[in-house]
Amino acid sequence: MIRIYNAHFVDEHGRMLLLRGVNLGGTSKIPFAPRVELSDPRFYDDRNVSFVGRPFPLDEADEHFTRLREWGLTFLRFVVTWEAIEHAAPREYDTEFLDYVSAVIKKAGEYGFQILIDPHQDVWSRFTGGSGAPAWTLEVVGFDVTKLRATGAALLHDWNADRPPLLIWWTNYGRLAPATLFTLFFAGNEFAPETKINGSPAQEFLQQHYLDAFAQLALRLRGMPHVIGYEVMNEPSRGYIGWKNLRSSGQFKYWPTPSPYQAMLLGSGYPQRVWLKMTNDQGERVWLPGHECLWKQNGVWDVDSRGRPQLLRPAHFARGDGNDFAFRHDFYPRFAARFAETIREIDPRALIFIQGEPGEPAPRLNGAELPNMVYAPHWYDGLTLMVRRYLNHLGADMLKRRIVIGSGAIQRSFAAQLNVFRHEAQNDLGGVPVLLGEFGVPFDLHNKTLLRAADELLTTRALDRSFRALDANVMGGTLWNYSADNVHGFGDAFNGEDLSIFCRSEQKDPSDIHSGGRALRAVVRPYPRATAGTPLTLQYDWFTHHFEYEFRHDSNIRAPTEIFVPEYPYKDGFLVRVSDGSYERRDRILIYYHDPQNAIHRITIQPAGDVLLKRPKVHCIFSILPHFNRLLKFDLLPHLGWLKSCWDTNFVQKAVKSDLVSGCPSLDAISSPEDH
Question: Is 287 strand, coil or helix?
Fold first, then answer.
């Protein structure tokens, strides 16, 4: 039983819980059947799909739950899309899927897992280059989903494309179809009052169907105590809300992306020049017969007497208070409260997990107004994710948009970035717990099979860097992700991503529960799962397997502290040293009984028969220069525009010459969305 007390997760004994787990799973974004490519006509037969079999077939559940429990990843952020529940038509729920996913979650409880339901979406829908909403949500406002790609209204990738530029799908947040739907969903009453769906305002229609769909799931799960809560929405987006100038492409400057006004014209059949290239020169229309651009209907633009389009309201989406952050101040909090009310009518004990837009401050909500709320932001090692390279001495502060030079400076920066979330939870959200909802690294650092062995070491080091940032903050988190059917060449089945910590292609010995695991030296690590007091410091070295934990005990707690100690890094056993008190071992759990005479307690674990191991040193000059050379040749510059600008304006050269991270220039000067 997990509850919230004094901005922490605690159990029935009052012990502070550190939740460590994984997102299950990445391939749950797409149907289990038929599993087709974009070029297959069945891709658009969206009514006749099935997600039964996600995240894995039920007869495989024992294998996967056993593996994850052995790895200590016992908190699951369980991915479910709106499309999976309601793909056929409005209010036609897939009861077979709802029954199936309930059976999977019930079995997870039998293995001791705690579950958070993640209503997952990326850039609105599978039909706008991401995942989440059913195709009919686009069609009811007039979009022809088969024309989105041709008109530039959304950027789609074939699932089996050969390493498409990573995160280019993210630019869809600024393209016509996803941006329109997010705007209608959160703020249709404000910005598109003329748009109705079956006589209802678009905002009310879309929100109500979303709420009703996940209420169907909550009804089936309310009797399962290990389902602790529900997230409002994965990585919500403001759409066009707050966009100051519709002629500007805003923050989407590292890939050819039309401005909102250009996107509206492209969708209406007017060819546009985007980054010197003519787009939609065939004059295709994205709107279904009998429909026209809904932004034209709402007075944003029109055609003059000569039939030429003209922008009437360039600041249409910035009206009202004109605040860029109106989305997180007003529109998202309003919906989050409505979502919480819907879920708690069914399951009053449910925790509600909230997050803002990636890279943006926390939404304006307060734990006193929304009790049992949890802040669950996402954070990634941005440079490793974007360029698919582990650079030991080059990193980025994704919150401040700064280049960070030096391995030590990077580690301190990562810890500081996560500490920002804790600060927001305490000071801006009224004192609520923090759970890092997503973090991880790509496992296809090289696309050549012969280099996979090198990837294992690099991904271990890269992922350990993120785990150490979590440890420095004694923060819980869920890795992105575990995909049961991840294979080489297909990855996570989402826009060329391959972040799963399990790969069936790498499973050489099915009898070995660890076979197929990736970067396990970083992933499978000891951690304090229940502490009889307040955690102070947590450290683990993946190379030496040395673990150290300090905490201050709470005299009101009588239960012992529990440390998860996996078998994987301690195959020959382990030695335990404690500052006081006593301990015992129970399977994978170290039970520690502290001496109440001492205030602070320390637990140290090391491999049995350990000898002093020295971590190999990597000298900056020899490690960073080959990486710079490789990046400049083909990886970094095409895929990360703000860093290209950084290099072109001599910022990187200056940073390389400086030993001080504080001396590195701010990337805000390069890529801040001054027009967005």
Answer: strand
Q: Which residues pair with 77 in a beta bridge?
A: 23, 116
Residue 176 host element (H or E): helix 176-191
Scanning the structure block, which residue is given the tokens 């979590």?
Answer: 470
If you compute the radius of gyration of the chain from its CA atoms, what whole number of angstroms results? Answer: 25
Specify the pTM: 0.90
| Cβ atoms < 10 Å from Cβ of 510 | 10
d(CA 45, CA 40): 10
- Asked if residues 81 and 28 have their Cβ atoms less than 8 Å apart, the reply is yes
Q: What is the distance of C-alpha 478 from the center of its chain?
A: 9
Here the tokens at position 542 are 């993946």
Provide the pLDDT confidence category of residue 620 given band limits of 50, 70 and 90.
Answer: very low
Active-site choice (438, 497, 550, 562): 438
Query: Is 235 an active-site residue?
Result: yes
Task: Please give the Cα distance from 448 to 458 (Å, whole number).
Answer: 15
Q: Decide if 580 contacts 594 (C-beta within 8 A).
A: yes
Q: Does residue 231 contact residue 353 with C-beta atoms inside 8 Å?
A: yes
CA atoms within 13 Å, Cβ hemisphere of 328: 17
Q: Cα–Cα–Cα angle for 40, 43, 45, nearest 5°?
A: 120
- The helix or strand, by DSSP H or E, that contains position 656, with its residue range, turns out to be helix 651-657
SS3 for 585?
strand
Q: Phi, psi (5° rounding) for residue 148?
A: -65, -40
Q: How many CB atoms lie within 10 A of CB 305?
A: 5
Q: Which amino acid appears at position 449 of this protein?
A: T
Give pLDDT tens digits for 250-259: 765 667 889 9
Domains of the chain from N-terminus onward: 3-130+154-239+322-521 (3.20.20.80), 523-607 (2.60.40.1180), 623-671 (no CATH)
Is 345 in the active site?
A: no
Question: How confident is the model over 562-604, as pLDDT tens digits?
Answer: 999 999 999 999 999 999 999 999 999 999 999 999 999 999 9
Q: How far is CA 555 from the centre of its chain?
A: 38
Q: List alpha helices for 378-442, DSSP H.
A: 382-387, 407-423
Distances (CA, A) of 649 to 112, 275, 396, 644: 53, 20, 17, 9
* 382 close to 462: Cβ distance less than 8 angstroms: no
Summarize pLDDT for 636-661 with one digit per residue, the tens.
333 344 343 333 333 333 333 333 23
Structure tokens that stand for 243 in this block? 């966009």
How far is residue 436 from each of residues 23, 77, 147, 263, 639, measured CA to CA in Å? Answer: 11, 11, 37, 34, 26
Handedness of CA 389, 390, 391, 394 (dihedral sign): positive
Q: Determine which one of 83, 86, 235, 497 is catalytic.
A: 235
- Strands in 385-484 per DSSP E: 394-397, 402-405, 435-436, 476-482
- C-beta pairs of 193-198 under 8 Å, 24+ apart in sequence: 193/298, 194/294, 194/297, 194/298, 194/299, 195/141, 195/294, 195/297, 195/298, 197/140, 197/141, 198/140
